[in-house]
């Protein structure tokens, strides 16, 4: 009897534990090449991509790599076709799509692959593997305008195209709304948590949207170097009001750096730039300032004196302590090597403070082939045929294997084989 009761309680606890960890709606996490479903240490539920009928799977070998989602890859022939993952989305919703690539010498060939990745007809990036043991990760933010999206690999220049993971995360409200969102995707270059206590990123469950906020403690070439003397990390256990704009996680906002000598400076390389992009900083005053103290500072970007005019006064702008203030630029032109500085104003008694920042590059959306409606009408009659499953745009970045397209920027289908 007692044993039964105990089992009952244990089972109830299990149940509560499992439901507490239930997956966020709008999360899709594909373990490409993986053999089965599992839940990782963060509580993210991974599913195998074994419904995909093309490509081959292989195991990798990387010393010390224990994360199951990276242990296998799916890879594709280095031919002139494209290989696509198609997923359902909710139209008029914004999403983060994240893909990752850990080569790990899966082909026992030690040839570092180079290939292209596209979202629909739009070229997203060129994947260039330069280290067998390092995870390459890409993130893109987009507004869904149709009920499915296709992410495609193509154009192998060296080695064989492959993929380790494919994730979709859904945003809500107007998070990452921009006035350009029907013409441009946002390709994420930097999302940095300043004042981080460890090298670990902050992500789900601290961030309900599972964005990855990189630590400023990471040591990497051309990542947050040229740091001003007097830069100190600060943190608070107090809760932060983050309920506006991009809703950065509280944990990210609870830490910051302060330029105790009046300046904060950093240099970092911005993948994808030069170009025009979306750049925002996240501030919250997390230090008790005495009534006589002020913290006022200005952003200084080399060659852009016009940006320096506006002074930041976090408490005044956020209307209080421990509250988010998120100033930024919805369209700013940035170089690849980005130097930025915050200087306190002459009437400020305290140095500048920075909790987090995020920079994304605008990627112009390619509308793709002109005859999509007609061809999809045809395909709907053959939905189960292999040749009807190629996915993505009929013509871009390369045509389906049984089609010929012309070379217009919005191509037309000219013939079928
Ligand atoms: C894995 O998860 C997917 C999606 O939840 C489900 O459709 C599939 O049946 C699961 N597979 C196994 C072997 O449990
Ligand atoms: C990869 O490793 C798993 C587990 O060790 C094994 O079951 C599977 O057969 C391997 N797959 C390949 C393609 O070698
Ligand atoms: C693997 O882990 C060991 C022990 O923790 C460490 O000494 C070694 O440098 C690690 N190797 C790699 C490639 O990270
Ligand atoms: C394929 O990649 C090469 C080298 O990266 C590039 O020059 C070429 O334009 C690409 N081809 C297509 C069709 O995108
Ligand atoms: C958006 O999601 C956040 C985090 O899950 C939640 O706190 C918030 O209430 C949601 N907002 C809307 C408008 O649904
Ligand atoms: C604020 O400044 C006034 C005048 O300079 C001074 O008398 C007072 O002690 C200061 N208060 C604090 C809390 O520093
Ligand atoms: C941003 O500004 C540049 C230069 O003024 C312009 O060419 C571009 O179309 C604007 N919009 C986006 C989304 O890049
Ligand atoms: C910013 O502050 C530093 C150090 O105090 C100073 O050397 C530099 O000239 C200042 N820059 C500007 C543009 O005011």
TrEMBL record:
<feature type="signal peptide">
    <location>
        <begin position="1"/>
        <end position="22"/>
    </location>
</feature>
<dbReference type="GO" id="GO:0016020">
    <property type="term" value="C:membrane"/>
</dbReference>
<keyword id="KW-0732">Signal</keyword>
<feature type="domain" description="Malectin-like">
    <location>
        <begin position="30"/>
        <end position="361"/>
    </location>
</feature>
<protein>
    <recommendedName>
        <fullName>Malectin-like domain-containing protein</fullName>
    </recommendedName>
</protein>
<dbReference type="Pfam" id="PF12819">
    <property type="entry name" value="Malectin_like"/>
</dbReference>
<dbReference type="InterPro" id="IPR024788">
    <property type="entry name" value="Malectin-like_Carb-bd_dom"/>
</dbReference>
